[in-house]
Write a structure and sequence with these properties.
The complex is a heterodimer. Chain A is mainly α. Chain A has 19 helices and one strand. In chain A, α12 crosses α17. The termini of chain B are close together. Classes of the chains: A mainly alpha, B mainly beta. The interface between A and B is large, with 43 and 47 residues. Chain A: Keywords: Cell adhesion, Cell junction, Coiled coil, Cytoplasm, Cytoskeleton.
Chain lengths: ~600, ~450
Amino acid sequence: MGDWGLTETSMDNYEISSLSHVEMSPSRHNNLMSAYSLPSSKSSYSVISAFCTEDNIPQCISYINQELGSLGLAAHIQADPPGRASLNAAPALNAMYELLQIHRRTMNSVEELEKEQLKKTSTLEHMQTSNSRLKDQLELSIREKSGLHETERQLQLKLKTLQSCLKTEKDEVQKLQSIIASRASQYSHDAKRKEREAAKLKERLSQLLVDRKDKKLAIEMLNSLGRSDGKRSHWKTAKATASREAEMYKSLLSDYEASQRALMLENAELQKVLQQMKKEMMHILSPCPPLNRGGSAEESQELGDSDREERSAETSRETLDQSCEHAREQLTNSIRQQWRKLRNHVQKLDNQASLVQNQPPSNAEVIPLETHEQEVERMRLEVQQCKEFIHAQQQLLQQQLNTSFDDETAALLNGCYTLEEKERLKEEWRLFDEQKRNFEKERKNFTEAAIRLGREKRAFEEDRAAWLKHQFLSMTPFADRMRSSSSDGQSALSVKSEPEIKTSSSKVPPVKSSAYTTFSTPKPSKSAAVPSTIDVCRTLRLIPDYSSSRHSNQRRWQESGATEDEESWLKSKSKVCSSDLSIFSLDEDKNPLT
Amino acid sequence: MNFSEVFKQSNQLCKVSPDGKYLATCVQYRLVIRDVNTLQILNLYTCLDQISHMEWSSDSLFILCAMYKRGLVQVWSLEQPDWHCKIDEGSIGLVSSRWSPDGRHILNTTEFHLRITVWSLCTKAVSYIKYPKACQKGLDFSRDGCYMALAERRDCKDYVSIFVCDDWHLLRHFETETQDLSGLEWSPNGCVLCLSCLQYKMLLYSLDGRLLSTYSAYEWSLGIKSVSWSPSSQFLAIGSFDEKVRILNHITWKKIAQFEHPAIIDNTKTVYKEIEKRPAVSSDEMSLHDITVASSLFSTQSKYDISPLPVQIPVVKPDPDRANPKIGVSALAFSSDSRYIATKNDNMATAVWVWDMQKLRLEAVLEQTSTIRCFQWDPRRPRLALCTGNSKLYLWSPGGCVSVQVPAEGGFQVHSLNWHCSGDSLILIGKDQLCLCYMDKRVKY
């Protein structure tokens, strides 16, 4: 099929004239017609091979010439003089050459055409495959489409059922709501009915109770009580009722007054804040127009505004107390205006800021920048120094830790610690001094007591000596004489006998012993210079007038004891309670004694 | 902190006298009066039956003991131990008995709320108030003891009567704009009366019966659950079933703040979480030790931890089919200085929320290991005491939180607690015992 097409196209393209000629020629040469019309067949070749014979050379020549002429070649094949079966070689060869040329050209074109044919077939194949592929795709998409259609249908069905469901549910809800409403109304109705019934029953019950003259209902009391305020009850009169009303209104009034006072205070506070805010606003806003003098007309207008503002503010402040309504209006107005102004101002500032940002940095800004950098440099240096310091300190510390530190640093560090220690010691020293002073005072008291004791002792010794002497003398034969002489000058004490003194001294101690123990126990130290405590206490027992000073001493001791207790309180609370209590009770015991 | 020894009581009846000197406890049918400081028994009175209610008179001179089953009230005098008074309500029955503020009248509510009987101890006179409404809190005395407000129900309508306590003169009587009034309460300054309904409706009446304002947050049927005035009369806190507390102000009676109780807390200062740990004792140690150690085994130690935010609070979903669902704010209390408010949301029963009224925000949350039974503010300081039905006492103050083990023998469990009016001691009430806890005066929490 391809071959056929090829020949056809070649005939069409190149040799239309020759073909027509060829087709025409058989009309004249019928015998050759069939042979030429089928050039590719074998039978035709055999005819062609028998084209030229010895006999028909001239015809052949003429035919060829004719043919050549029709091909547009110079047909100059001439036969040799007749009778000789040979050709004139040169024109024949020329013709042949030209024919060959034509043939080659034709062959070339055929080749090209074949190539083209191949290309075409390949593209065709490609097209076919793509076509089939597309067909498959189409099929697939069609199938998909049908599937989607199916699901859509199903969904639609579902939707329909759901819609119906919804409808029924809605109906249900409506029904239920109506049921609820009816129930509610029924319930309220029932409740009302029940309540009425209950009320009726209650009425009846109370009636019955009243009718039965329930004797059990009673109050038994030993005797009536007085009113809690001690007054007698009043009769119920119109006047009393009126006074009740008045009292009620009074209490209400006082409450309202209190709340009004509170509100007024709050209001005043708020007004103060408001005024202050206003003042500050003015302060902020007023210097701004002069700065931008020569600016737009808007600013000057603003200036006027602020002036007016101030005036209105003044007036508002004046009228504030007069009429609240008016003042409030003015106040809100002025505040609104000022707020507007503030907003404008802020916007302007914003604009300025943006302008400044857009401007290239001017000289005015360079200088601070430099100083800033200098400053930064300086600070950096400082930081570096500090770091070095820290490093050095760390090194020193490290050295100390490694125990191989030198004496200097050791002394330094010890100095640090000892300073702290010294502070603490100073504090302790101070405390100690205070205590010491207290002790000194105590000691003075004791020495005084001791001196007095010594004196007493001496007196006693003297008394005793006198008494012994007296005894001695009474034992002597000349006793009577001595007694009569000494009885006048004897003291009251000396008159008493020894056992009498003993009883009098033994009567006092049991009462005082408790006081004495609390007094003596806190005493921490006894100095050798002072007489011993036993002596002292003996003196104390003997000297009644000393007790007042001793009592004051005790007080102080107790106080100091209490402070000690406070410290120990933190350690154990329960113990403190007991000790506190004991001290307290002892103190109470002592009071009647002294 | 020190604890006294444990005393017996019954019906959780133990009260400190208003002057703070005496402690009255009921043991079966006996009334025991003790000195608060020494705990020595001063007086012992014997009633006719088991005491079901006990109350001190305002002047601390008399004690009322009511025996509801028998319809009897007995009054005892502290000054004259042989003085006695017995009031018999007869066959009509008795459901509630209370003192009037002057301490010379007793108000008895009869069964079915038929009437309120007012007995005078001065004149032996008796008077009746009819139609009292049977509701949560139908009767309230103003703080100064001058006025009494009473909710009434006549012809299926709510009324409020205001009486002058001095001579029981009816000062005002007005119908209220409520369907079903559930409670009324005077403001601490005695000038405003707030009325609440279960459906969210709060009405505020002036002393002279004028309606000052109404407030309603929503329309659903479960509304107000608890109401509390601040001691300064400045705020009115309303706890409701929607787990919120709304604070009204005293000038406009509008809402100024709303405190919600979310399950996840992320905006508070601190969340204290109680952590229990049982003392670890190995088995061989147990065999060696005697019973006293074994008993201490069962007592767990607990401490507070500060949980990092956000914190998830355990929530119990209430049963919607049951009446009185366990949801919403059921308890709220202002501290004595009105600075803090403590709340409890019923479906988060293990947490107490403390709100700052100055900053109007959540200050702290205390998450306990068990359900909170009771909490109460110190009457002097911003200090909150709470108990959870175990053997511990918990205290919160702005400084922090502590849990203290009550060192009583035999598993003393704190069911309820009461501050002494001085704020120095605390009465811990167990099932049938009580114990006093003395605060350390020097240690400030």
